[in-house]
Amino acid sequence: MIYKNSYFKKELRQAYMGNKISTNRKMTSALFLGLVSFALYFVFQTLQKSVLSDVVPEIMQASYFSTVYLYIHIAVVFNIIYFIVYYDYLFFSEIRKNSWYLLIQMGYRPMSMLVSKFAALMYSVLLIYTVGFAVTIILTFFLKYTFIAAYLPTLYLVGVGDLLLMTILSMTFSLYAKTVINGRYWTFLTAVIIFVMKITLGQYAIISNRVLMQNIFILFDLKLSLYWPVEAAAMLVCGLICLLRGKNLAKYYNLPSDSAIIPAGVNLVEIDSRTGRQKLISGKVKEGWRGRIVDTVTTLFLIAFICAALAFNVFIILINSSTPGQEVTIRGVIPFVFSTSTMEPEIMINDLAYFQKVDVQYPIVKGQIILFEENNVLFVERVIKAGNPLTVDIDNYPPMSQIGAMKKTVTRQAVHGLYCGRNRWLGALILFANTIVGRILFLLVPAVLIFYQGQIYKYFSKENT
Amino acid sequence: MEHVPEQIVVMEGVASSEHFLVGGEKPRRVLDDINLLIRSAEIWGINGTSLFEIKLLLEIMANIRPYDKGKCVLIERGMMRLKRVILKHVFYIGGSEMLYNNMNVLEFLMFAAAKSKINRVELQEEIFELIIAIGLGHLSLTPNYMLTKEEKAVITLIAAAFSDSLMIVFNLPKYVWDEVLIDAISKMTSFIKEKRKTLILATQNCLLIEKACSHTAITKNGLLIYSGTVENFRLSFDKVEVIIRDKAVESMKEKLTLLLPGYELDVKGGSLMISRKTSEVSDHGIIYKKIIESGFTPDSIEINSKTVQNAYEELIRQHDLQE
Q1: Is residue B24 one of the residues assigned to a domain?
Q2: Which runs of consecutive H residues, i.e. helices, occur in A392-434?
Q3: What chain B residue is nearest to A259 in terms of C-alpha separation?
Q4: What is the bridge-based pairing of β-strands B215-220 and B43-48?
Q5: B59 and B30 Cβ atoms separated by less than 8 Å
Q6: pLDDT of B262-281, one tens digit each?
Q7: Are A424 and A348 in contact (CB under 8 A)?
Q8: CB B11: neighbour CB atoms within 10 A?
Q9: Among the three residues B214, B235, B256, which one is the final residue of a domain in this structure?
């Protein structure tokens, strides 16, 4: 076998050992992305009756729009993770590692390498994205939703725009990041920048509207959003920076730190023989403080995540194990997952409602919502007549049902709590935690993290060194 | 015909701007008054007591770091004011991270040498044969990420040998070389010489200098204390004439000290070293006679074949005594 790799072909391979393996992996990644989007869509479907339906209806609908909308976001997340993991292979850290120095000495031209690298990465990103997009549409076809082709090109274009911007931003940042770990942080930052830009420039208001999205030109309507001109300008500026900075960096040999070979207890100073001024170049004391910060942050983050996940699980178990007469009380408040729509709009289905625990002496007035027990079952209704017994009724009767059918009298002894507020997001989170994916995330992941915390810590320590 | 410069590196009174600062003491220049002449197709091994000193010396030579005083001329072209800038005539190897980890050795070398005008098939054959010839055939199809940093450095050296640069600076004094790699570098130097290139390597491995280099330079406390051919260095400073191995070396030493007054006797690692005190050439026959006279029959008597390691230790010892 005669090896005939050009720089472009080498870049297309990305992190893999062979061109064919790389192409296969890209196709597999695209398929995986489509499947993940589809799976996530089903997870969201289990949260239909939650705050999510009101806040993000665009991902909760039974339509191609929701699956594809999810896909374009997952593609961004996937690419960010991919960029962070394979940062070394995909971006300009190779200039800092002097790989380009060797190639330039061997006759390669920096400008040609810059263009090849950029083109190869864009091609790979778009290939995975396009195939994944097609896979998502094909999978959605099996759900037999009404096929509306009009918003698909617009959604495709939105995803392409995000990925191109993210890629070129990451490439630009990689030219300034002096270490791989910093470069990875910067890469993560690109996703945050794009997300913030989309919110502040009103892009989300457009792309989450499936009626508007049926017209591709709506994206470029400057009265609605300036996102696309800003994105185009950012890409142009970054492209120019890449060319200039890349060409400039490639002119020099990058000198690694010598601190490891400086004798112990010795500082290295540069002395200007004309002025006599001393400049400390390296001292043993200064070494490693950044590494320690990253170690500490990593450890704290892991501990915080594990503790939060475990605490949340305990909370859910307690709420789920609540029985009439033995409700869980936290500082005098009973948390209660409300699973009917009888008190809408005051308390929505699957909201986490809070009830202040009260005794028989506590004055209850007309209009207040109470938590009471009847035949060993807990009910939540509104007081329509105060006194002892209280008369209660629900706020929202389902259509076709008889108004006042749920009206009943409740003794003061049966009252457990007085409604004092609700949290819609915690309610949705509890609902999610009770799904299979939620259980995995909140129970299995912390368990795995606890088990492998040593290895994770070592991994991050290795990265720092 | 293209003119090949004869003088590759000329250093005259070069002093570094970097200084070592120990506690409240007066700062000491890392390198001071360095005078060195390196000619075309020579292989130099730079050794010294401080890793940083020898690394800095090669960095200055390769235009990677500036110097404070003196003159340094590279390949009869002077020295660029702009530091770290890539010079076509100097190939600097200061680390082993230049290789791409998603390629194997042969593939990487083919990729690196792809811009040469040689036919691809012939080029691959030449590279492959070279890898085998230097004793690294077992690595030819190994992925780069599986190589040690020393092996990666040797692969980078092979790539450098295929470049157009006239001077290769192999500045990895901290690396630890095993016999296989020392042998590989030593064979690579023949290839480099054939191509009329000059190799300057920094190392504290005396065996590497002995096997691979034609010339050596030694630094101590920022000064160049020796520069010249390896052969001259070995013959001038390794004064050990005979090595005796026996269980009773201590009692032999006592007896032979009286019989060999013109020699110095020293026990090292269970062996008795007999060294001459003067620089005159000694007669091994006389030493042998005296051993026989002493009445001992040692397990083995070996005539020392003059090593760089012994010469280096002797040179440093002499300088320590002078200080």
Answers
A1: yes
A2: 424-433
A3: B52
A4: parallel
A5: no
A6: 888 888 888 888 888 776 66
A7: yes
A8: 24
A9: B235
Question: A263 and B50: CB-CB below 8 Å?
Answer: yes
Last-in-domain residue among B218, B235, B252? B235
Euclidean distance between CA atoms B121 and A434, whole angstroms: 63
Q: Do B153 and B170 touch, CB atoms closer than 8 A?
A: yes
CA distance to partner chain A, nearest, from residue B68 (Å):
7
- Could you give the strand order of the β-sheet that contains B18-21, starting from the edge strand earlier in sequence? A278-282, A267-271, B18-21, B28-29
Non-local CB neighbours of A427 within 8 Å, separated by 6+ positions: A50, A51, A337, A338, A348, A350, A351, A352
Name the residue among B23, B55, B69 with its Cβ closest to that of A273: B69
Q: Phi/psi zone of residue B221: left (φ > 0), alpha (ψ -120 to 50 degrees), beta?
A: left
Q: Indicate the DSSP class of residue A143.
A: T
Residue B117 at interface with chain A, using a CB cutoff of 8 Å: no
A100 membership: H or E segment, kind and range? helix A99-105
CATH of the domain at B56: 3.40.50.300
Kind and range of the H or E element at A333?
Answer: strand A333-338
Do B152 and B293 belong together in one domain? Answer: no
Token pair in block for residue A363: 């004055």
Comparing CA positions, the residue from A95, A113, A255, A91 lying closest to residue A184 is A91
What letter does residue A443 receive in the DSSP assignment?
I
Same domain, yes or no: B93 and B167: yes
Confirm whether B37 is domain-assigned: yes
Q: Cβ separation of A108 and B18 shorter than 8 Å?
A: no
Written as tens digits, the pLDDT of chain A (465 aa) is 888 888 999 999 888 888 889 999 999 999 999 999 999 999 999 888 888 888 889 999 999 999 999 999 999 999 999 999 999 899 998 998 999 999 999 999 999 999 999 999 999 999 999 999 999 999 999 999 999 999 999 999 999 999 999 999 999 999 998 888 888 989 999 999 999 999 999 999 999 998 999 999 999 998 999 999 999 999 999 999 999 999 899 888 988 777 777 877 788 888 877 787 888 876 544 445 666 676 677 778 878 888 887 888 788 777 776 666 677 788 888 888 888 888 888 899 888 899 998 888 888 889 999 999 888 888 899 999 888 888 999 988 888 888 888 888 989 888 989 999 998 888 888 888 888 888 888 778 777 877 777 777 676 665 554
Which residues of B, range 216-245, sit inside 8 Å of A by Cβ? none
The pLDDT assigned to B279 comes to: 66
Count of helices and strands (H, E) across chain B:
10, 15
Q: Do A107 and B115 touch (CB under 8 A)?
A: yes
First to last CA, chain B: 51
Fold of the domain built from segment(s) A333-433: Umud Fragment, subunit A (2.10.109)
**Domain ranges, residue B260:** 239-305
CATH of residue B299 = 3.30.70.100
**Same domain, residue pair B156 and B295:** no
Q: How far apart are CA A30 and CA A130, in angstroms?
A: 8
Domain boundary assignment for chain A:
7-249, 289-320+435-464, 333-433
Whether residues B200 and B275 fall in one domain: no
Same domain, B220 and B300: no
The answer as to whether B322 is a domain residue is no
Provide the token pair at B202. Answer: 């920094």
Residues in chain A within 8 Å Cβ distance of B97 = 97-99
**Strand runs (DSSP E) across chain B, as ranges?**
7-16, 18-21, 28-29, 34-39, 43-48, 67-74, 90-93, 167-171, 198-202, 215-220, 223-229, 240-245, 263-268, 271-276, 300-303
Q: How far apart are CA B201 and CA A31, in angstroms?
A: 51
ipTM of the complex: 0.88
The answer as to whether B2 is a domain residue is: no
Query: B24 and B86 in one domain?
Result: yes
